[in-house]
Amino acid sequence: MKRIALLSLALLMVAGMVFASGAAESRAGLDIGIAMPETHVERWQRDGAALLAGAQAAGYRAEVTYGDADQGRQNQQIQDFITKGARLLIVGNINEGVNSVVREAAEDGIIVIAYDRLITGSDAYDYYITFDNFKVGEFQGRAIAEALDLANVSSSSPKNITLFAGSPTDNNANFFFDGAMSILRPYVQSGALNVVGPAPLRSSDAAFTRIATENWRADVAKARMENLLSNDARDVVLDAVLAPNDTLARAIIEALAADAKYDTTDTLPVVTGQDGEIASVQAIRDGRQYMTVFKDTRDLAAGAVALADALLSGSAPSIAGARLDTETYDTGLKVVRSYLLEPVNVTAENYRQVFIDSGYYTEAELR
Fold first, then answer.
1. pLDDT for 100-112, tens place per residue?
2. pLDDT digits 0-9 by tens, 245-279
3. Where are the domains of the chain?
4. Residues of 286-318 as b/e, b for ≥16 C-beta within 10 angstroms?
5. Which of 62, 138, 178, 298 is the most exposed place for a label (fewest CB within 10 A)?
6. CATH topology for 133-294?
């Protein structure tokens, strides 16, 4: 009887060891979890694919998910990464609702890198990688100022502009807008530039919420442009539209083109953009969209993987083409270490050099 008891105890111990070993193995099944916010904006698909390929090429076990612009869904995806034993998370969040799982990750000792979108309202992470988003806005504002020759426009015959901004839950939208308005604001204040519709001069102005575009949705931007054309912009000719990205720019152009005042390429206003999406590069080539700002997600993904590799190996991060900013990006609870890459201004004059010569797109893709 005693031998049976001892054998039973031994079997229980072995079973416990097997279970513990299995648990350890499952928790070691993932190194890097990559959580992207959505797929309806083309660039996020490219980011996710580039991050996954880069992490795997560096020898890490990695997975990528897309949140479909639903923070609850993204939180479940991140919790799944945590359960799988991820050592590091790269998160392009949707809104501040991500904070609970970022905190959960931190409590489990998981490193979190905010990717291209600052995770506001959180002190549970230390690293952020993005482009110089204020400069992105400056490029957009300067493009409008130069295209309309605002330096030589008088208040007696002002140019007309209407303003759009990105998602109110995306901190980058503030940087884009404030960068653009740092260029355009003096012309508004001098009377050379007349704002049609809501006229915030800074993202901190109350009217900013009236020009923001929920979740960067094209249908929301198109509907707002149609409403402007039927109301505030009905009796004026718009010379420019500040559009924060390419997806919204094309939706705005579609609404404009349906109006008799803007139904030809020559009568369309100057419309800005960002991200270098294929359809917008074609629109720039064909004279429908004036410009875009290219943020080479290959470089951003490579930088994020380099940062992840350094943090996981305990070495000092060194990210090609990025500058370290330890003062600007405040989550509201702490300032995080931020690595900023340089954006590129793109017009009809240099789109081939930027996109085709660099190999980002092929000739066939842009036909």
1. 999 999 999 999 9
2. 999 999 999 999 999 999 999 999 999 999 999 99
3. 11-125+296-342, 133-294
4. eebbbbbbbbbbebbbbbbbbbbbebeeeeebe
5. 298
6. Rossmann fold (3.40.50)
